[in-house]
Design brief:
Elements lengths: L4 E4 L10 H8 L4 E3 L8 E2 H15 L4 E5 L1 H12 L6 E5 L14 E2 L13 E5 L8 H11 L2 E4 L16 H7 L8
Protein name: Serine hydrolase family protein
Keywords: Hydrolase
Amino acid sequence: MSRRVLIVPGHGNSGATHWQSIWETSKPGCWRRVKIEDWDHAVCDEWVAAIARDVEALGPDTIVVAHSLGCLAVVHWAARNTAAIGGVLLVAVPDPSAPAFPRADSIGFSPIPSARLPFPSIVVASDDDPYAAISYAQSCANIWGSEFVDVGARGHLNAASHLDDWAEGYRLLQRFDPSNL
């Protein structure tokens, strides 16, 4: 049986050409997108509650695939919950102090929790992401006890980065469970 995977997109959700959506479409049944009421006005507490509900429904050993603001929501969820999960792929972690960060529409995500994550994690970053300097992403990985992967100049690692099904990212995800993803 395939491992259950929870997709946690960033602000505005991930459209059809985003790698998260492509992955989700290719694995119907076992992959689920977190259910958020308003993707454009992000409230951290609401996102954390949604992640908690979906992880509980999917069960232990769920693997979480988060992008951008979804990464911050997952880290806040981890700081408030004790549910065991199989791991988390944190892609394009944004810096709330970056000029591009959507502060007016992203409430309660700062300060970022600074505790080590209680499950395996990989932080993936691009060295030309407008939402966070590569040094910020590296610092987050160090604080959270995550493996760090620099993929070079790829922008925000979203649909505009033209990653398509992002095979490189999928190989990183498979590190959590190579035979069942």
